[in-house]
Design brief:
mainly alpha, Arc Repressor Mutant, subunit A, two-stranded parallel sheet, two-stranded antiparallel ribbon, about 50% helix, about 10% strand, WH_DNA-bd_sf, ArsR-like_HTH, DNA-binding transcription factor activity, WH-like_DNA-bd_sf
């Protein structure tokens, strides 16, 4: 289940890298308390608590009462599996840029973390061989690009499996028209 961000207020909420990382961690790593999130994200509990309350106020996270509670621990979970956002048009260009910038910061941090783990020899040669970044420039139409993105999404969603030897893999896709300068 995904949530669509189509208004400026919700986009501004997620235009903060730590809020994006909190939401992502709850989706990928599962429910957590603010203290667990602070450890996962190398921040402090006060910040995670503050941002969790903001995310909850806007319906992106919720209490996770099914989690084991000790004392006054408050467990949180993501409400949706993913977030997509739509273009707000000319009037929302600054907000859209802020959300996209925050997303790129989160992606860059994940890639930097992977490379640091490689330097510490925490990944096998097999994982190092297949981890990649690449770019391609193609000539296409909006309709064909839409089909390409749908095909890629279908392939990505079909590639996952839960088995003992699997790892979580971040797949990031950017598709933007490109004009030559000049």
């Amino acid at each position: 289940m995904e949530t669509l961000l189509a208004d400026a207020a919700m986009m501004r909420l997620l235009a903060h890298p730590l809020r994006m990382r909190i939401l992502g961690s709850l989706r990928v790593d599962g429910p957590a308390t603010s203290a667990i999130l602070a450890r996962r994200l190398a921040t402090d509990t006060g910040q995670t608590s503050h941002h969790l309350r903001l995310l909850a106020r806007h319906g992106l996270v919720a209490d996770a009462p099914e989690q084991h509670r000790r004392g006054r621990e408050r467990w949180w979970k993501a409400v949706h599996d993913s977030t997509v956002w739509s273009d707000l048009g000319v009037g929302g260009a600054d907000t859209m840029r802020a959300v996209q910038h925050a997303a790129r910061q989160v992606y860059d941090q994940a890639i930097d973390t992977y490379h640091a783990e490689v330097a510490r020899q925490e990944w096998s040669a097999g994982w190092q061989r297949v981890a990649a970044s690449s770019d391609y420039v193609i000539r296409t139409t909006p309709e064909r690009l839409d089909r390409l993105c749908a095909d890629i999404e279908r392939l990505v969603r079909g590639a996952g499996e839960e088995a003992a030897d699997t790892e979580k893999v971040l797949v990031v896709l950017h598709t933007y028209p490109l004009r030559a300068p000049g």
